[in-house]
Write a structure and sequence with these properties.
Blueprint lengths: L1 E4 L13 E4 H4 L4 H12 L7 E6 L5 H14 L4 E9 L2 H10 L4 E5 L11 E7 L8 H11 L4 E4 L12 E4 L2 E6 L3 H10 L2 H9 L4 E4 L5 H11 L7 E2 L20 H7 L7 E5 L6 E5 L2 E3 L1 H11 L13 E4 L5 H9 L3 E4 L7 H5 L5 E4 L3 E4 L7 H15 L3 H12 L1 E12 L1 H14 L7 E2 L2 E8 L2 E2 L6 E2 L4 E5 L4 E6 L7 E11 L9 H16 L1 H5 L6 E2 L1
Parallel strand pairs: 3-4, 3-5, 4-9, 10-11, 10-12, 15-16, 15-17
Antiparallel strand pairs: 1-7, 2-6, 5-6, 8-9, 12-13, 13-14, 17-18, 19-26, 19-27, 20-21, 21-24, 22-23, 24-25, 25-26
The structure holds 1-O-phosphono-alpha-D-glucopyranose and zinc ion (ZN).
Amino acid sequence: MTVIKTTPFEGQKPGTSGLRKTVKTFTQPNYLENFVQAIFDCVPELRGSLLVLGGDGRFYNDKAIHIILRMAAANGVARVLVGQNGILSTPAVSALIRKYDAAGGIILSASHNPGGPNGDFGIKFNSANGGPAPESVTNAIYARTQIIDNYEILSAQDVDLSALAKTKMSEMDIEIIDSVRDYQEMMEMLFDFSAISNLFKSGMTFCFDAMHAVTGPYAKSIFGKLGVPDTSLINAVPLADFGGGHPDPNPVYAKALFEKMFSEDGPDFGAASDGDGDRNIVLGRKLYVSPSDSLAIIAANAHLVPGYNAGVKGIARSMPTSRAADLVAEKLGVPYFETPTGWKFFGNLLDDGQITLCGEESAGASSDHIREKDGLWAILMWLNIVAARRQSVVDIVNAHWKEYGRNYYSRHDYEEIENTKAESVMQGLRDQLDDLPGKVFGAETISEATSFTYKDPVDGSTSENQGLMVKFESGSRFVFRLSGTGTVGATLRLYLEKYEPGDGKLDGDLQETLAPIAKIAAEITKLNALTGRVGPTTIS
Ligand code: G1P
Ligand code: ZN
């Protein structure tokens, strides 16, 4: 074992979901090592225990795994489960931590950010409950990185990650495991595989876009078992640079899938997942199901799925996510919660048994089966609901809107703007919050304007400055917040929502319907003047 002297790097502060930086930043000598040592220093339970390790296969995944294994051995970890070829989806890591009582897991991913030598890399620590470490832990890790002066590493040969085998590195046991098996077994417990495979037997056409990211092998195995032909799975081979694309399932980056689904004789059901397999989108023929609606529809129909036939205990959504799920919770008579953006805030509610389902507008949904969002789970949920209701995705969405009303919803992202400009938009709005209520803009009157603070109902901890929210008397609203996952400049997100009751106009054009709210948001914040942009970079 060697103790290597090091000096702190600035900015090793985990964001919304772990530490994300460019590959160039991560591959500087000692950069990864410092952060990993900070994890071992702040989570002493790892000594003598089991660690789960894997990533989304992006550039630097395998090298990072070899470094972390040697550091784990030097730091007294007893045993490590590593996904074959270093591959484990984020939901699979969460499932493995829980199944095998690990003290934690390290996930190597920058989720939907681009990969390759010029792309991004990331590392995230998940705790023993399988979920992203809470802020108390990530803050401690950050604090440690600021004073770190050495790290411990073993000099050892790289282990062969390609063969399923058990081996040892000094005293530490290493097991290279099938990346898919445990996760798939869990899915087979939750869903009615025979009902879903009957859908495909009866001719339902399907397309899944793995975006050259981690879900390729998972999709091949799971959808293969359901009788889906390989030709229905596109971009299913994981590549270190995701084939040059952003593995972000939205209309911009999942272009191939959207084109198929909006073509004249496109498939009946379309879906995609992201870089590390935790996000999902679902499409019907010529219809993209907004992730906020998806959470609501999953909640309203969960009782039709074997794993959830006991009903839903409660539902949580992140603050910028539309209120569609709240309406379902109200009807079901179960509690609902509004949390800050980021999966870590759902953990306590899930652990405490207060909720069964949770989700975010950013294509994330999941349940209490693990402590991460889960892309393939959400897609299987939809397939199971389609099978049980014997209705298409399009019919299910329309019926839902009729019953609950429609929450028109869209997110406008202003990407790679200078930090100072993004901050000036936020500060400008923050300064006006007290004066906004009562002001009239066209047909809308502002009822409430707040900076969102979350008080965790389980541990009482408080998280401030989680986004600026402006609500109107009509029930419409807009939210501004700064992204915590970007690596270049700042990304300003504007979230727009307008509610239309079930007997109102449900088939309006999405952007047209939201345009008046977007205009008010821009007017109040002087958005265009302050950012120097004429419009958003990405609309989802
Ligand atoms: C984004 C999403 C957020 C999600 C996170 C990790 O974070 O908005 O909902 O939890 O990615 O996938 P942001 O960049 O907005 O901080
Ligand atoms: Zn992701």
